[in-house]
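::Encoded backbone::
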Amino acid sequence: MSLTERLNRREEYYKVAIARLRRAIEKGIIGEDTEKVRTWLEQFCIGRGLDICTGDFPIHDDAIGVDGDDRKLGAHYNIQGEALTPIASGTMDYVVTNYFDCFPNPLQALLEWNRVLKPGGNLAFSCCNALAYLADGPMGPLGNRHRLSVF
């Protein structure tokens, strides 16, 4: 496959993904609760930093998006948030995430984020309040699209 063909495929993928996001916003799947958490996290985005598990929308316009899912539009790096190998130590002013609860080894994630932060840098995260959800379905509480967060 040529480079032009690859680019055309990727462009079509992004068009479909953006249309999907528009429908989710119109249906209220992405809505006010999500924006409250994002607004709270954004206050810590001063300087150059990382948005871990960025999803389709980075927390801040200048944030460097990190997401292990290569289908997410906001990702600059398609890597796991607890293995930031391409990011040099002590280079980031902030690290934020609104999915801290998704990391299987929270201590490993925190140590890695500490590694990339400059001395005095900001670390801010929110996590799902799992007690607010039913554990029905294969994803358990994370399957609930209306997240209640603590931060």
